[in-house]
Amino acid sequence: MMTEEAKMPMEMIPAEIEIDGHKAVVTYDPDIEMFRGEFVGLRGEGGADFYAKDRDQLIEEGRKSLEVYYDAMDVLAAKEALRRLASGEDEMIPSEMMDRLLDGENPVRVWREHRALSVEELAAEAGISPDQLIEIENGQREADPYTTASLAKALKLDPEDLV
Q: Model-level pTM?
């Protein structure tokens, strides 16, 4: 059953509608006697277009279109993640390591041990003293941005991974 709004002529249907928090521009194609919705602001290639005979159906088709769009974005994201893993740009993190990080253990120590480096090896690679590294790992000293960047480079990480 169509609502009164769904039966409105084109000039009475808003030129923009919102579906699940996304704005769509609505036009009417008289050749096929259908409304066309096009989402704006969606990232990725193309948009998510949808067609229907009335407003209610347009919203239903818009939701279906968004679902297909998000499924496609998920596939692209998964492919990109696999590419980054295969190229060595990213790596899998063992759950035991994540547990340690989530439990609040010092990330420098967790990553150093994961990379199988001694205190002396990491300190030498980062250009700091072993005593300074021990103090950072024990929370007795906070690493300045330069030291954090040096440690991150030595551990083959982004500095944000150590904060």
A: 0.58
